[in-house]
From TrEMBL:
Family indicated by similarity: Belongs to the peptidase M14 family.
Designated name of the protein: Peptidase M14 domain-containing protein
Residues at the catalytic site: E296
Record GO cellular component, one term: extracellular space
Keyword Nucleotidyltransferase: no
One GO process term, biological-process aspect: proteolysis
Cofactor(s) this protein cannot do without: Zn(2+)
Amino acid sequence: MRISEFIGLLTLFLIINPLEGFGFPPRYHTYQEMEEDLIRLAHEFPHLCRLETLGFSTRLGRAILGIKISDFPQIREDEPRLLFNGNHHAAEIIGPEICLFLAESLLGQYETNEEVKRFVDSLEIWIVPMVNPDGHWIVEQDIDTLWRKDLRDNDTNGIINLDYDGVDLNRNYDFLWERGVSEPSSREYRGPAPFSEGEICALRDLAERERFVIDVCYHSDIDPRRGEYVYFPWLWGNSRSPDYFHLQEIACSLAFSIPNDLNNGTYSYIYGRAEEGGLARNWFYYALGIFSFTVEVSRGYRPPEMRVDSICRKNLRGCYYLMRRALSSQITGRIYDATTQRPLSAEVRILEAYAPPETILPRFSDSIFGRFRRLLLPGRYRVLVLKEGYEMKMETVEVFLGRPTEIEIYLQPSGIEEKRRSDVKIQNFGLYYTADGRRAERILGKGIYFKREKERMKKIVVF
């Protein structure tokens, strides 16, 4: 972005969102106040929440705090998990307020609001209000109220140099990271390597451990014209993500559930571009299959204090919609070893929403419960389950509006090493299946197989 363009946007931003003297507004939480609030909630509601230090910031070593809200917060339940996080970018201080407001609402209304009780009893909800505490410190100390990055010491001189230091945390994820900006002085500097920042490693490790079904990253933009939008993954060139229409449906409903600041409409929704290197939203979806959304809140970095509570209440509607959706239309189930009844971690493909690994990494059931979950539009889907050492299995499943479809899948051990050639999965006995689920027969000697294609037979030789 050119300096003249940035100054123009800043001027427009200040007209719409005056910064009330450029000091840090008392309504907004400092890092210390956020920490104190989370500790208070953990002490006040020990039966409903657990506070965890997820990692530490790169420069100042501040704790990255997350709070888990559930009816049994100390144990891992077989329930859908959601993540809400804010403040990847330091100046975007409305995100932590929404996250804290959500935590207070869930815990404070558990005994009086039946729907809130259902959410807490049926889900595991993780909230990370402040992903970038070092950068937030620069903003709250009024050193630079428009600071974006963390505080990595890029020039290793031991001094905080605002012209050169810092990494854009939302360009540090390992998805097309190499396309990001390599110049440390840039506001969008990607960092020296993917996941070089402790803040992002903390969120990555949490996501890999918890395998969320939905993630929301709260942002706000200096350009008011880009505010009040929900982004979902993705358009990559001219190609849509394999879950594009399922993601679009959720993004649309999420956006329409959040009233805008002027109360004359709602948020809008749009696909994000995959080519934007290092984004959280794209990595969450690509690496873990998480339905990840970016909510650009309000119109500007820092809405006036008088509007903060209203904005939080409006965005709470979006949070509650996502919780309902996590319990709604989907295919979910458990995968077991048919012999031992032991839960299995196996690859699960929804063939109507499948793409090869170079587009999105394979999705697996978890190893603890054998559980998988896929949010889907109502319709009929083919579920293909694969695991080395087991026979493939495919089932056709109907998804209904408003409720999950639950299935159990038992995989038969093959008892013999499996071999893969091209798109065909070969088992050295009896029957085998192609990757798209078509069944074939072994009818000749060892290493020679045939696949039926209409009325003729096609020979496949395994060397």
